[in-house]
Amino acid sequence: MGKKQNAGGERLKEEDLLIEVLSRLDVRTLLVCKAVSKTWHSLISSPTLVKCHLSRAITSSSSEDNKKTALIVRLFNNEEDSSFSLYQLGGCDDNVAHLDFPYSTGDYPCAPPSFLIGCVCGIVCVSVIVNFRWFTTEKRTDIYIWNPATKQSKLVPGHTLDNGKRNAALGFGFDPIDFDFKVVRVLSKDTFPEVYSLNKNVWRNIETRLSDIPYRHRIETCLHGFLFAIGHNGMMAFDLNKEVFICDISLPVRSNDTCVADFKDSVAVIIFNFSEKVDRIKLWSLDDEACLRGVGVEASWTMMLTIDVGVRVDWVFGIFNSVELLLASGDLFLYNLNKKVGRYIDTDLFFDFHEVFKYTETLLPVPGSKLVNWSDDVDDNEESSTDLEEVSEESRIDSEDDDERSSVGVGSEDGNEECTGDSEDDDDSEEKSSDSGDE
């Protein structure tokens, strides 16, 4: 097989060059390319290309030069429609794709209420309130892990703890050490939290009583192998690899109007004051992540930004491509931190402001999944033969020629990208958290 020379003077095999080219294509095109030959099918399904494609996509979406950032949102045009859609931020804001649901037509007698829990590395977690329309006091929730780009979706096994009349706080994150996606459930202080591993396909009780619970209905931000939420007593962090909670992390300023975000690849909190209807936002960056290791280190913060955005701030979603801050002010508002200018986003869509996540298209497989069918033309999307454990194993091996494609470059969000919503305050939420289905 012939070789070419790259810009660094290295000699590349034709297969390497093919991977370099294919990794720049969108997922839909790559799925079509699988039909070219058995060789291409095998190559596109390989862990090497999957990782290379993901790394390139996340690096591009996090770049300051990126002019287009994709968001996944939940629509609510009417009572029957709580489907999902991709919305692209850029010079011309546009609804780029309607995604329907993570389950197929006929799986439920009618479309039940569905809610976004999180989106990491292009993999989406959705909760579905199954018996909502029957007005029962007991809530049954189905949880799906879904790749909208490949239409692979997995119904997570039922969790061990029944909600009963209580509502659960849910979080979805990525463990970069074990290359595993996980779902976390928190009911109350007097029950053990639970964590689900996609690789192991099981729920496990975390047999530690929590001193705090999430103030809102989501454990909302994934960064550096942790899930973060604002609790009643401070910030909470969940170590996705060790599967332990660290509670009562002190905040720079105590405010109910606080969200955790990624600021230039550092853990940050954004504080605003919705009750006073002011236009000022303050951003603080965590100085050292030692406080996340559970060793009794006090958190220290540095104020990085004080921003007068010029409009009333209802909610802050996070920073979506290093320099643009997305917030709600009646409608969606995008503020450029470098240029210090903002603009309203042109959209006729109606979607839940508390269910907006950054989205990166990916080829990552969902082990144990099935293909979702919402149309008659189930075409090119056959189930992937690659699984996460294959990708994980290859990511542990250093290539002899220092091939950068052998390691997953895992970026960060937005409040939501790493390989990273809100409800009304509840007077009695000190003892039980609110729920993704309690909108």
Automatic annotation (TrEMBL):
Record-annotated F-box domain positions: 15-53
Stretches with biased composition (Acidic residues): 376-392, 414-430
PANTHER family (UniProt xref): BNACNNG10540D PROTEIN, F-BOX PROTEIN CPR30-LIKE
Pfam families (UniProt xref): F-box (PF00646), FBA_3 (PF08268)
Name the record gives this protein: F-box domain-containing protein
Location of region: Disordered: 374-439
InterPro entries reported in the protein's UniProt record: F-box-assoc_dom_typ3, F-box-assoc_interact_dom, F-box-like_dom_sf, F-box_dom, SCF_F-box_component
Parts forming coiled coils: none
Gene3D superfamilies: 1.20.1280.50
NCBIfam families named among the record's database cross-references: F_box_assoc_1 (TIGR01640)
Origin superkingdom: Eukaryota
